[in-house]
Amino acid sequence: MKEFIEELQTLNAGKIKENEPLANHTTMKIGGPADLYIEPSSVDSLKQIMELIQKHNIKWTAIGRGSNLLISDKGIEGAVIKLGRGLDHMDLQGSELKVGAGYSIVALSTQISRKGYSGLEFASGIPGSVGGAVYMNAGAHGSDISKILKSAHILFEDGSMKWLSNEEMDFSYRTSVLQKKRPGIVLEAVFEVVAGDKDQIFAEMQKNKDYRKETQPWNYKCAGSIFRNPLPKYAGRLIEEAGLKGYSIGGAQISDMHGNFIVNTGSATAQDVLDLIQFAKDKIQEQFGVSLETEVEIIGRK
After folding, report:
1. Taking Cα atoms as reference points, which of 95, 86, 94 lies closest to residue 188?
2. Is the CB of residue 170 less than 8 Å from the CB of residue 178?
3. pTM greater than 0.90 (yes/no)
4. Which residues form the catalytic set?
């Protein structure tokens, strides 16, 4: 690792920190340290960083804005690559929108609606980055990323880079090929947006955002939806019917606003959250015979 860090520093490719607390980089404010934290300054610098990672056989993990993420109290081994300010570019040419993976999906939906383009209204209340949204096919209000994505620029584990079409991304409910078959990092995305009535588009976006504020605990430290919806049923509704809203373990609590959210009341550990997840899964299985699967990504040392 020492030799890797020394070579990395010569690249001048972005921020580098050892033993960086990852609680500082997640919306839940939970997570142990990264052996090495790297924030690339551009797509080109990320490519150089990945070449060094391959050369030194370093384990790596990519994160975005830290939503939909639960990081172990023991942290993450190897290098943690945060896709942030160096990958937050945006370019709109006609109906084609090219965006860097580090761009906030909420900010993007706001910017595009104000320009009079439709397609991203559903994302107005989704926290996180464009890269994360593409990776997991984020969605809400009856739409998702798969409905508007034309192609995604991916950096794979072996250091190769390729643009994948919508079809090649193999989207399904909250899932893409990057989770199922070919691990990689989303660098950029190209979306198809449609010109429309600016006031109508912005009103729809605002309605979605207001709905989230009224029904979900975004003013608390949380990671978004914890469980995938076992369609046609809904995880939050099952948890509410089981009487679990407000139930807590340690500093982790099932939100009393929405059953599919777990909030950090101030002192929660990742283990508290994991214990609460397991408790909820057991209760729902016992009462309804439904097996809940987590939507939140759980990563780090065991």
Report:
1. 86
2. no
3. no
4. 174, 225, 295
